[in-house]
Amino acid sequence: MRSDPFRQICPGHLVRYDGDMPFRHAVGGTNDLLGAECENCRKPLLLYMMIDASDSRLGLHDSPAELIPLLYCPRCALQWHEFSYRVISNGTIEQLEFLVGHTDAASFYKEVNSDVFIRRSVRLEPTTPRFDAIQLRAMEGEITLAEATEYAAVLRQPPPDLPGGYPPMQLASQVGGRPYLMQGSAQSWCSWHQGTREAGALDLIHRGGARPHASKHTKMGVLAVLTDNDHPEVRLGASSAQVVFYLCRQCYCISARYMVD
Fold first, then answer.
1. What is the C-alpha separation between 87 and 179, in angstroms, rounded?
2. Whole-model pTM?
3. Taking burial as the number of CB atoms within 10 A of a residue's CB, which of 33, 54, 84, 217 is the most buried?
């Protein structure tokens, strides 16, 4: 068995759209944050989720903002590379790294047809040790059909339909924990490099000055994974993909990545 590749930010919680919702967690909504216009296509970054830092189960009490925004732009070249920003305060972020390139959003609008995701309040349901173990085994390529079926039942999704071969994992939105990632143990580091460097034929822009810790490369942990599969009316442009948000706890930098199988 391989070693655990994750730096866990907080205990795992599934995103649910039913039941009591004592916190201000929400998927979607209008982005009215300062500094949150896409630096490439000049449209507001899409707000995928707000995480209520007052939820003590998550251990995010040191957040500089009461609500932690998860932002991304799937409409332009920004999605071709990891995108990062820092949460400054309530209502303000600073973009740190983004890719400059095309601004053709036709494919995104064909699926979503909006620049704002409908806001829906959600609750966070703690995952069980058994569920966590199945996810970790799936990341290591050891899951059985029985485990995949058990996993799907927890997600309230149909069991996997297999003619044979490796059982597919159902996709679900999750905050914290060690979620199943389509691209395996993809990791992210909080980087303080400045200036501009080439990324293929496109410019990768780095910003920012001194940061509150000395290490130039600090490993980040998965804060949230979001997908369309949790609710029949939710459309985040990720019906067969994942939008993964990583967090650096030392400076509250967030890095976003789009994953497809």
1. 23
2. 0.87
3. 84
